[in-house]
Design goal:
Layout lengths: L2 E2 L2 H23 L4 E7 L3 H16 L3 E7 L5 H12 L6 E4 L11 H7 L11 H8 L8 H12 L8 E5 L6 H9 L8 E5 L6 H5 L4 E4 L17 E4 L3 E4 L7 E4 L4 H4 L5 E2 L6 H25 L1
Parallel strand pairs: 1-11, 2-3, 2-4, 5-6, 5-7, 7-8, 8-11
Antiparallel strand pairs: 9-10
The protein binds guanine (GUN).
The site of guanine has 8 residues, from strand 4 and helix 6.
Length: 299
């Protein structure tokens, strides 16, 4: 029986370390890290992520700045808000929650490019994507960083292993592929990226030592698609209708966890696997940004 990896517990250890540092910094520098979040519109999943982000930010001792904008807001209003935060010395990290409402989607790239790269704790700015691709990252995108931290925490060997990523998004699949390829202890994997145009995805996943499912399709990865003893990382967070659930839906991943856990060596569950790590990494990136700013100001 494969191990269910407890991402919530791992993230709890990380929060505790961050909390201790923030306590120390508050005393030594008289300032705590500041994280600003912007939510445009009322996408229910985005609202729920943002609520968790704000809760964790405050619990960890950071200062949280948040703005809600209506879905009918203009590109100009968003840019103005981002620019205010860019120039605010008490803010170390800025996050614009994606996806933006439909009529603003075409501006996503421009909005992300407006965030000061030294405050881009998502790591989505082209400067930061470039630094990552060159092997010298400033900020590692949160979900990929969380996945690497899970693998490290569980002592799962990456070097020389075949990692198959399903999904080529700029938020998860692409940056994760770069990380797994890096010439360091958390890299040196052989990496395959599968996507919606890949023919016979199962032919690839059956050869994988590590599978990372990040395509957004409920229960896509089934037991017949995996190799005995492989490690399965499930990034999917899909809402499926469930009249018996209090909210009328439940969350399931991209992996049929129940089916694969008899065959895999380890699996991350949904919820409680990668999700909690993503928010912990957001706070870690913000803390790292704060530390750099403090050392610039004190040096
Ligand atoms: N939407 C889903 N995941 C993310 C993320 O990591 N960052 C932002 N900004 N939006 C998201």
């Amino acid at each position: 029986m494969g191990k269910l990896i407890d991402g919530k517990a791992i993230s709890g250890e990380i929060y505790e370390e961050i909390r201790q540092k923030v306590k120390e910094y508050r005393i030594n520098y008289g300032r705590v890290p500041g994280l600003a979040t912007l939510l445009v519109g009322d996408n229910p999943a985005s609202k729920s992520y943002i609520r968790s982000k704000i809760k964790r930010t405050e619990e960890t001792g950071f200062k949280s700045f948040h703005r809600d904008l209506e879905s009918g807001s203009t590109f100009k209003e968003i840019i103005e808000q981002v620019n205010l935060w860019n120039h605010d010395e008490t803010i170390d990290g800025i996050l614009v929650q994606l996806p933006l409402p439909d009529q603003l989607k075409k501006y996503t790239g421009t909005i992300m490019d407006t965030i000061d790269p030294v405050k881009d704790v998502d790591g989505f700015h082209p400067n930061n994507m470039g630094l990552l691709a060159k092997g010298n990252p400033r900020f590692i995108p949160c979900t990929p960083r969380g996945i690497i931290e899970i693998l490290k925490h569980e002592n799962i060997e990456i070097s020389g292993k075949h990692a198959v990523i399903i999904g080529r998004s700029q938020i998860v699949g692409l940056p994760l592929a770069i990380l797994l390829l890096m010439k360091n202890a958390a890299g040196n994997a052989t990496v395959t990226i599968c996507h919606s145009r890949t023919k016979d995805i199962a032919a690839f996943t059956r050869q994988a030592d590590i599978i990372i499912a990040a395509l957004g399709k409920p229960h896509f990865v089934t037991a017949d698609m995996i190799k005995e003893g492989s490690v399965i990382i499930d990034v999917g967070i899909n809402r499926i209708e469930d009249p018996s659930a209090k909210r009328g839906y439940r969350l399931v991943g991209d992996v049929d966890t129940e089916a694969v856990k008899g065959k895999a060596a380890a699996v991350t569950p949904v919820p409680g696997g990668v999700g909690p790590m993503t928010i912990a990494m957001l706070l870690l990136n913000t803390l790292n940004s704060y530390e750099k700013r403090q050392s610039r100001n004190n040096g």
